[in-house]
Amino acid sequence: ISEKGDEIAEELTAHAAFHFIGTMNPGGDFGKKELSPALRNRLSEIWCEPCTADSDLVQIVEHNLDYAQFGFSRDKLCLGKLMLEFRNYFLTSEFGKRATFSIRDYLTWVNFINVTVTRGLSLGQAYVHGAFVTFLDILGTGSTSSLLEQCHGFRRKCFKYLRNQMIHARLVSKQDFRKTPEITRDGGRFGTWGFYIDNKSTDTQADMKGTELFSFKTPTTHSNLIKILRAIQLPHKAILLEGSPGVGKTALLKALAE
């Protein structure tokens, strides 16, 4: 019988080996209600322990990093340990006290590295930019909105820490990050460094304008554009721009789309 009581109801027959398995966050999490006793009695409940041991996290990261395409040996380079070192540095800050690191975050960082190395970034550059797209570009939103004035300074400190990690690992030099990336439109591509998107326009004017009244060269707009292009490199992950009304979020996206 269908829920609405229609005379004709669709009948589905499950495969003999079919199992229904659901997942949920704990009851009471962000206003979620507990399951009713009647529903609980129909399920075999299992509590999943969180993965908090550093050794577990390192193994997960190392397993998913594509060292073969990097040209490095897992035995000689352990990015998983470096990621945890950065996490520990991050957690000592006021921002870190308001943040949480999940396995999903580490895998996002790993995925970014795997993808962008194939698109022209060095391994060291991909590592640094991956930290930004995963942890640092989000600063100023949510629980860190009250620390907005401190965001720029903290990002710079984190950048220096990440860069020094890669210099110590001999994956980058200081010169690799000195130049401000230039936005270019060339050969059917638009973007900078390894952060390109397909573009069919043949307009190569110096101001890289998306509209007659919009320029990508102004410092703040340029910085926001780099963040968007960087985030676009992550396949199958949507992007959300957050900012005060009137700062140009929609205008930037409109100009980029044109």
From TrEMBL:
<keyword id="KW-0067">ATP-binding</keyword>
<dbReference type="GO" id="GO:0000027">
    <property type="term" value="P:ribosomal large subunit assembly"/>
</dbReference>
<protein>
    <submittedName>
        <fullName>Midasin-like</fullName>
    </submittedName>
</protein>
<dbReference type="Pfam" id="PF21108">
    <property type="entry name" value="MDN1_4th"/>
</dbReference>
<keyword id="KW-0547">Nucleotide-binding</keyword>
<dbReference type="InterPro" id="IPR027417">
    <property type="entry name" value="P-loop_NTPase"/>
</dbReference>
<feature type="domain" description="Midasin lid">
    <location>
        <begin position="78"/>
        <end position="137"/>
    </location>
</feature>
<dbReference type="GO" id="GO:0005634">
    <property type="term" value="C:nucleus"/>
</dbReference>
<dbReference type="GO" id="GO:0005524">
    <property type="term" value="F:ATP binding"/>
</dbReference>
<dbReference type="GO" id="GO:0030687">
    <property type="term" value="C:preribosome, large subunit precursor"/>
</dbReference>
<dbReference type="GO" id="GO:0000055">
    <property type="term" value="P:ribosomal large subunit export from nucleus"/>
</dbReference>
<dbReference type="InterPro" id="IPR048617">
    <property type="entry name" value="MDN1_AAA_lid_4"/>
</dbReference>
